[in-house]
Amino acid sequence: MRARVLIRPKAGILDPQGKAVERALPALGFSGVSNVHVGRLVELDCEDPSQLDRLCRELLANPLVEDYEVLA
Amino acid sequence: MRIGVITFPGTCDDVDARMAVDKVAESVALWHADPDLHGVDGVVVPGGFSYGDYLRAGAIARFAPVMESVVAAAREGLPVLGICNGFQVLCEAGLLPGALLPNTSLRFICRQVELQVQRTDTPFTSQCQVGDRLSIPSKHMSGRFTGEVPEDQVVLRYVDGHNPNGSQDDVAGVCNEQRNVLGLMPHPEHAVDLLTGGSEDGLKLFAGMAAAVAPAAAA
Known about the structure:
The complex is a heterodimer of chains A (72) and B (219).
Chain A: E1 2-9, H1 16-24, E2 40-45, H2 52-60, E3 66-71
Antiparallel strand pairs in A: 1-2, 1-3
Chain B: E1 2-7, H1 14-22, E2 26-31, E3 42-45, H2 65-75, E4 80-83, H3 85-92, E5 99-101, E6 109-117, E7 133-140, E8 144-146, E9 154-158, E10 171-175, E11 181-184, H4 194-197, H5 203-218
Parallel strand pairs in B: 1-2, 1-3, 3-4, 4-11
Antiparallel strand pairs in B: 5-8, 6-7, 6-9, 9-10, 10-11
């Protein structure tokens, strides 16, 4: 199975990358954009999807500060 | 007494850490792929970029064969000092609470910082007084401490105006519940000689560690 895992900073944890994007937007003429958060997407081929959750928890994400979600 | 210093691929502060250890004890090189701790009385996990930090600082190093032995020995009470990337590795390994996130500035920061000693009931700070100020270089990209940590496990704080990375509550160094594992972002191994370090304050942490393991070595 081709799996896609979305990893994002947990709500409430300062996301300086998102803030940097937010601050850059007005200079490019964009307005009305707020609440930007930057995460990452990991794509992988996985023979046994039942191990995906553990794989995310133990390696791909740090569950203390990041949320992860296996996308369908 | 003998204190081991781990080298991972990408470690760059192991040589300075060994020089610092050699001022107070005998240093022993430990290799990431070798699970044998060679009977050392303490371990330093030094700074650098273990395995390139490609996924997340410290995330891969925690699976190194040597770390499995360090985790087991630390749970038995072995003193372990994690500096910078070593701090990140110890958090990822679950030996220390919290996590280290990218600096609020998103930039690599390199500067001398002032730390204040909060606790002296750890081996590493046993040669200090509460309130002592240590002047130590700091250099990192991901040093923003975040996480739930009991106040009595906060061992070092950045002095007001010296927090280089946006760490929560100015936390610079934390220990585990047992108090035998300490992690800090600034680099005490670079502050052991006035010629190059700006101060010798970092030596106090190594001296404390050596003093703590000395009775064990003599037994």
